[in-house]
């Protein structure tokens, strides 16, 4: 799984006390990972939870080197959170067709994403490789070619998923995400109530709808607040560490991401009313949660146009 760590800062959350940092730990979606019931509902023809990488029959390599290259490509794609498997094609598989052509005295590796019906959905080319090293099946050369190509292939897969979502009226590209907010616990003073009210108000927009039940929710959000003793402080006043963790899970209960807010405060300053602090913290958290939902669902990803503008049926049988 690919993890993207974001750090955002907003002033004025604790008055003159300083800054409250929000860091979001976000899951970047890939269409060949099994995303559970939610993900399978995002596109009418979502790809299955694997990408087959068969041994190429015509890649200007010997049999052993061709097998090694397919394993190298599968391993490099796993590093990009694409569950690729170096195996023969099975019914219903999306798969990656490996190949190679000579151009300008070099070998150019090629990578075509294929639908189960055998149609080319996208094609990427790798960097030029020494023809002699390629023909010799040099292991380092094959591994390097696979590592260099993997990010582009993963990006193509994400674009394919986005195109499918774009054509599916049920996907989150065409409706607001249904979010059940399970509340806040652990905050001192009136923080549980104040944060919950402020967050529910801050999250509602055209992209996200907060509902009062978990039934049919796309995502569930909850927040846990912890307060622990800190250092004495530069002026001799006792300090406390304040941490707010806003956790987002999908409809299958899988972790979609989390946004964590951290701050050192004068001890017990939030033991009573949170007031504007709750509003500012909730607005910041809503932005982080919105990014988690967008990244995990892929609703903001740019669709990859079908080759030649022709529609592609994702899961048709060969």
Automatic annotation (TrEMBL):
Residues 297-318 are annotated as: Disordered. It comes from the Bacteria. PROSITE patterns: PROKAR_LIPOPROTEIN. This is Lipoprotein. The lineage of its organism: Bacteria, Pseudomonadati, Pseudomonadota, Alphaproteobacteria, Acetobacterales.
């Amino acid at each position: 799984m690919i993890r993207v760590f974001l750090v955002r800062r907003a002033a004025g959350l604790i008055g003159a006390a300083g800054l409250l940092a929000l860091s979001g730990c976000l899951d970047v979606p890939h269409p060949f990972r099994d995303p559970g019931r939610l993900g399978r509902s995002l596109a009418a023809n979502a790809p299955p939870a694997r990408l087959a990488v068969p041994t190429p029959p015509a890649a200007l390599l010997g049999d052993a080197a061709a097998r090694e290259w397919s394993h190298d490509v599968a391993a490099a794609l796993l590093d990009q959170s694409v569950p690729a498997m170096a195996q023969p094609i099975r019914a219903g598989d999306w798969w990656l067709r490996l190949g190679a052509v000579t151009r300008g005295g070099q070998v150019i590796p090629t990578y075509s994403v294929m639908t189960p019906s055998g149609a080319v959905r996208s094609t990427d080319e790798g960097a030029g490789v020494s023809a002699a090293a390629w023909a010799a099946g040099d292991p380092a050369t094959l591994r390097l070619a696979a590592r260099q190509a993997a990010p582009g292939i993963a990006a193509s897969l994400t674009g394919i998923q986005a195109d499918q979502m774009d054509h599916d009226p049920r996907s989150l590209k065409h409706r607001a995400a249904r979010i059940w907010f399970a509340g806040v616990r652990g905050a001192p003073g009136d923080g549980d109530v104040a944060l919950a009210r402020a967050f529910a108000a801050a999250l509602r927009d055209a992209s996200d709808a907060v509902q009062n039940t978990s039934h049919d929710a796309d995502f569930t959000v909850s927040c846990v607040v912890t307060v622990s003793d800190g250092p004495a402080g530069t002026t001799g006043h006792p300090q406390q560490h304040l941490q707010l963790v806003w956790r987002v899970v999908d409809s299958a209960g899988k972790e979609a991401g989390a946004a964590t807010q951290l701050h050192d405060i004068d001890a017990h300053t939030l033991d009573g009313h949170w007031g504007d602090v709750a509003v500012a913290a909730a607005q910041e958290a809503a932005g982080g949660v919105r990014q988690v939902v967008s990244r995990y669902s892929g609703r903001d990803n740019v669709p990859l146009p079908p080759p030649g503008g022709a529609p592609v049926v994702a899961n048709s049988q060969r």
